[in-house]
Amino acid sequence: MPDNLPDDLAIFTEPVAVALHAAWRRHAAAGEKVMVLGCGTIGFLLIQVLRLLQPECEITAVAQFPWQADLAREYGADHVFYAADDGYNKAAQITGASLYVGRGGNRMLLGGFDLVFDVVGIETTLNNALRWTRAGGSVILVGVNLHRMHLDVTPIWYQEVDLLGAVGHDVIEWRGESVSTFELAMRWMQMGQIHCDRMLTHRFPLDAYRQAFAVAVDKQKHQSIKVAFDLARDFASS
Q1: Is the pTM above the cut of 0.85?
Q2: What b/e sequence results for 119-151 when a residue is b if at least 16 CB atoms lie within 10 Å of its CB, and e otherwise?
Q3: Does residue 204 lie within any of the structural domains?
Q4: pLDDT of 25 over the 60 cut
Q5: The CATH number of the domain where 115 resides is what?
Q6: CA distance 171 to 180
Q7: Region of residue 58 (left: phi > 0; alpha: psi -120 to 50; beta: else)
Q8: Has residue 179 been placed in a domain?
Q9: How many structural domains does the chain have?
Q10: What domain range is 111 assigned to?
């Protein structure tokens, strides 16, 4: 870890590397409509990475709370709507797609986003991601869910939507060199191209772990994003 990278930034090295690896799985092109479904640590970083890699793509973020929506816009999202909104109508409005409703209430879009990153990874978000993506578009599954889910794969064969997974980090070709996404993440933070200062929302001593986990889980009450243990303070007082 570089000496000139503060600890408050260094703890974001792995999340930035994860976001970069996800964005590298399918590059956004200029003019493409891209969705980031989920506004947590990875979601906020992914918005910044996408904006850095392709300034001319159009980014839509899906947030749960108003404070998340504000931060998503600050980090580069062009549009934001809420998970509680009618996502089909919102997706149609933003992308210019046509919304069709079947006799049984089943809905689909003719058109949609070129590229969707599901940073939540639960049954509802992944099914929506597949249906909000245009024919021939791509969905990148970034969020981790360890439970079984029921998935309607119709868009994968009927609309030829590509479903790709992304986990961890990678070594990529960047401006003529092979570089680890960890290394590139640290460079970008050192250069001020990725901003994490507002994302470290809470610090706790290790013996307050119960409170730390409670704060991390209840994002609505505490407006928590990244919750960290301050081990330096623990060691200094021991």
Answers
A1: yes
A2: bbbeeebbbbbbbbbbeebbbbbbbeeeeeeee
A3: yes
A4: yes
A5: 3.40.50.720
A6: 4
A7: beta
A8: no
A9: 2
A10: 7-171
- Is 182 among the domain residues? no
Scanning the structure block, which residue is given the tokens 């906020």? 44
Is there a single domain that holds both residue 87 and residue 38? Answer: yes
- Using DSSP, state whether 42 is helix, strand or coil: helix
C-alpha 205 chain-centroid distance: 28
Rounded-to-integer distance, Cα 107 and Cα 102, Å: 6
Strand partners, 113: 133
Same domain for 63 and 166? yes
Q: What is the DSSP string of 157-170?
A: HHS--EEEE--S--
Inter-residue contact 56 to 35 (CB < 8 Å): no
Strand, coil or helix: 16: helix
Token pair, residue 26, equals: 């399918």
In a shared domain, residues 66 and 166: yes
The pLDDT score that the predictor gives to residue 24 is 97
Same domain membership, residue 143 and residue 232: no
Q: Are residues 156 and 217 in the same domain?
A: no
Handedness of CA 188, 190, 195, 200 (dihedral sign): positive
Shared domain for 25 and 84, answered yes or no, is yes
**What pLDDT does residue 234 have?**
55
pLDDT digits (tens, 9 = 90+) for 140-190: 999 998 889 999 999 999 999 999 999 999 999 999 999 999 999 999 999
The single residue listed with the structure tokens 């992304």 is 166
What is each CA distance from 135 to 28, 113, 132, in whole angstroms?
Answer: 16, 9, 10
The answer to whether 22 and 165 have CB atoms below 8 angstroms apart is no
